[in-house]
Every structure is written in structure tokens, then in C-alpha cells.
Amino acid sequence: MLSAQERAHVAQVWDLIAGHEAPFGAELLLRLFTVYPSTKAYFKHLGDRPDEVQLLSHGQRVLEAVGVAVRHMDNLRAALSPLAELHAHVLRVDPTNFPLLTQCFQVVLASHLQGEFTVEMQAVWDKFLTGLAVVLTEKYR
Ligand code: HEM
């Protein structure tokens, strides 16, 4: 899916995030719920307005999964299989929500990494996250 150089770019950006999964993840979720309120429908159990602790906790889990994907770029399907099952068959998250999360993630990366998140980096991350979403939504069939 990604060339060796693209993979190196993904890893380079990930090195700036690793260790900060919870705050990055919380901000990602907050942006997702704010910009696309319909996504909150899947998180009703967190209440109308998820608090900081809930955002940090779930945000960390989501970003840690992205970290797993970064470490298994050559074998995404196997690495994410249980997560794909969960989203398709248990949570039944509509696949149209994944591009929304991908977009919000890029905005969060751009706002924090600024100059380091170059146009080239953004293009590579878009490709990587889209590939991730493909793997996470292909069990729906
Ligand atoms: C749960 C990752 C996209 C809704 C999870 C979990 C992870 C995760 C790691 C926890 C799994 C566990 O507890 O075993 C991801 C990744 C995504 C993604 C990496 C995309 C790149 C989405 C989207 C939605 C969504 C787009 C809906 C808008 C949920 C819900 C849960 C969940 C409702 C259960 C929350 C809970 O148990 O409190 N996701 N997810 N996910 N995800 Fe996702």
C-alpha cells in the first residue's frame, strides 16, 4: 500500500505523537463530536457531553490502535482484525464515519505539529489513515 519512503514519513510523524496518545486522542474525539455531532450517537453511554476523563481514556485507546497500525504497516489486516470485527459486527459503526475521523485527525496533527506536518506529510497520513479505515470497514460485507 505505502512505499518505503511513505512508511518512513508515517513513522517520522508518529514519533512526535508517541507517548502523547491520550491528549492527542482526546482532542481528536472532541473535534469529531463537535464538528460531526452525529458521531456522538455511537457514544451515548458516555452521556450527552463526554467529560475529560472519558475523552482521554477512549482517545488513548484509539491512538494506541493507530500506533499498532504504524508498527504493522506491512500487515495491517492481521494486526487490526479484532478491531475490525468489533466495529463491524458489535458496534456497527457506519463506514461513512471513518473518513470523518480521518479528517479530524489530520486537523489535530496540523494544529500541533505545524511546520513539521508538511503538505507531503499530510498527503502520506491521509493515505495511511484511509488504508486503516479500509481495513477497519471491510468486515461489513
Ligand atoms: C472502540 C479504535 C473509528 C466508534 C474502539 C477501540 C479502539 C478503537 C482501539 C477500543 C476497543 C476495545 O475496547 O477493545 C478505532 C480506530 C478508528 C476508529 C483506530 C479509526 C481509525 C471509529 C469511528 C467510530 C468509532 C469512526 C464512530 C464514529 C467506537 C465506539 C467504540 C469504539 C462506539 C466503543 C467505545 C466504548 O467501549 O466505550 N475504537 N476506532 N470508532 N469505537 Fe472506534
TrEMBL record:
<dbReference type="GO" id="GO:0031838">
    <property type="term" value="C:haptoglobin-hemoglobin complex"/>
</dbReference>
<dbReference type="GO" id="GO:0043177">
    <property type="term" value="F:organic acid binding"/>
</dbReference>
<dbReference type="GO" id="GO:0072562">
    <property type="term" value="C:blood microparticle"/>
</dbReference>
<dbReference type="InterPro" id="IPR050056">
    <property type="entry name" value="Hemoglobin_oxygen_transport"/>
</dbReference>
<dbReference type="InterPro" id="IPR002338">
    <property type="entry name" value="Hemoglobin_a-typ"/>
</dbReference>
<dbReference type="Pfam" id="PF00042">
    <property type="entry name" value="Globin"/>
</dbReference>
<feature type="domain" description="Globin">
    <location>
        <begin position="1"/>
        <end position="141"/>
    </location>
</feature>
<dbReference type="GO" id="GO:0019825">
    <property type="term" value="F:oxygen binding"/>
</dbReference>
<dbReference type="GO" id="GO:0046872">
    <property type="term" value="F:metal ion binding"/>
</dbReference>
<dbReference type="GO" id="GO:0005833">
    <property type="term" value="C:hemoglobin complex"/>
</dbReference>
<dbReference type="GO" id="GO:0042744">
    <property type="term" value="P:hydrogen peroxide catabolic process"/>
</dbReference>
<dbReference type="GO" id="GO:0005344">
    <property type="term" value="F:oxygen carrier activity"/>
</dbReference>
<dbReference type="InterPro" id="IPR009050">
    <property type="entry name" value="Globin-like_sf"/>
</dbReference>
<dbReference type="GO" id="GO:0031720">
    <property type="term" value="F:haptoglobin binding"/>
</dbReference>
<keyword id="KW-0479">Metal-binding</keyword>
<keyword id="KW-0408">Iron</keyword>
<protein>
    <recommendedName>
        <fullName>Hemoglobin subunit mu</fullName>
    </recommendedName>
</protein>
<dbReference type="GO" id="GO:0004601">
    <property type="term" value="F:peroxidase activity"/>
</dbReference>
<comment type="similarity">
    <text>Belongs to the globin family.</text>
</comment>
<dbReference type="InterPro" id="IPR000971">
    <property type="entry name" value="Globin"/>
</dbReference>
<dbReference type="GO" id="GO:0020037">
    <property type="term" value="F:heme binding"/>
</dbReference>
<keyword id="KW-0349">Heme</keyword>
<keyword id="KW-0813">Transport</keyword>
<keyword id="KW-0561">Oxygen transport</keyword>
<dbReference type="InterPro" id="IPR012292">
    <property type="entry name" value="Globin/Proto"/>
</dbReference>
